[in-house]
Amino acid sequence: MPLKAGAATAADEPPAGGQVAAAETWSLHAQATTVLQFHPGFRSDYAGANSLYAGNSGRETFDLGLYAGVRLWHGAEVYLNPEIDQGFGLSNTIGLAGFSSGEAYKVGARDPYYRLPRWFIRQTFAISEEQEPVAAGPNQLAGAYPTQAIVLTLGKFSVVDLFDTNRYAHDPRADFLNWAVIDAGAFDYAADAWGYSYGAAAEWDGVSRSARVGTFTLSRVPNSRELDPSFKQFALIGEVEQRFATGGLPGKVRLLAYANRGRMARYDDAVAFAAASSAGSTPETVPVRRVAFRPGMSLNVEQELPNQVGVFARASANDGSHEAFEFTEINRSLSGGVSLDGTAWGRGGDAAGFAFAVNGLSSAARRYFAAGGMGILIGDGTLRDYGLEKILETYYSRNLNNDWTVSADVQYIEHPAYNRDRGPVTVFGVRIHWVH
Description:
Number of domains: 1
Distance between the termini: 13 Å
Mean pLDDT: 93
CATH architecture: Beta Barrel
CATH class: Mainly Beta
CATH superfamily: Carbohydrate-selective porin OprB
Shape: globular
Radius of gyration: 22 Å
Number of helices: 4
Order of helices and strands: EEEEEEEHHEEEEHEEEEHEEE
Helix content: under 10%
Oligomer: single chain
Largest sheet: 16 strands, antiparallel, barrel
Strand content: over 45%
């Protein structure tokens, strides 16, 4: 996952009196990640088309990707990320609003297949003479970059490459896995079924604060493999970031707001349409979709503490009267946790973390699912006894060498898909990650 745009700016001159790595004109990095997840059987009074399978179940995902970058002209860099994917999420990535693996897409395949999920150009305009060295990395050319800059990014990439980032909980290849922990649960960001979109973003990066805005195309229809290239359906996103120090240790707070404009259904309209139709009809969103705006917002905090400890938290909410368009059925969410660096116990390169997430549905969404409606990830055929979906996750990542890590992950989930009549379920995971 690339760095935020403001950290990926470039300039030709090194800082006065300082030594920096030679500026790269091109780079090539690679990564591979395998995630295996398993859950034992759990209580299920009933199930529907979008329910998590209640018996013993295990699935795996694999992806292999390249990160190619070239410096074009002063301040300009272009990146391509070809990728090969394979595998399935548990129950083919349904049955949990806060799904258990950020490495599981909504499109599963038994055989490996090729994609080009990212291709974008990044242009940096320096607004200060002061520079700082930046090391080489995936989607990051080494060199000296201005500490204050305006950065433009254009192409195909993930919204959460730039927005809602968090040092301690954002990368399913390195830290936590659950969707509602690595991203703000109620951030229904523009994306195809793999999590990417066409768009443009601009960032102003100052000394202690940043501001970024972007527009991205939505899918042709909610939760689709195909994006709408006409931009008739789109998302507008804005985020402000304040950096500070507490006891000499760095922290950040980010406030994000967004609005999706597309053809989407009101939950109550879907229920009313079904009630007015033939007896026993279940609600569907397709017949009642109309052009509408669906706004939301999130608050995102991170703080480093002494002894290589970091804490983080997110709170988010969106308009729960309309169906989820891209991400998942979460109308409000609160998450947070602790991240530990292995140097604290003599294991440099190791990491551990503990996190929680609590997800909720709006009253309109509850009525829709109680009547038998289906969503992007959830739908048990009814929702007789609603409860907040509660998630606990812990992981330990063991560094084997500079390139390889292996991680163990455990998630305990109460009321999967907000259903008190199902669960709890415990998900065990192993992640093997290579990057070079």
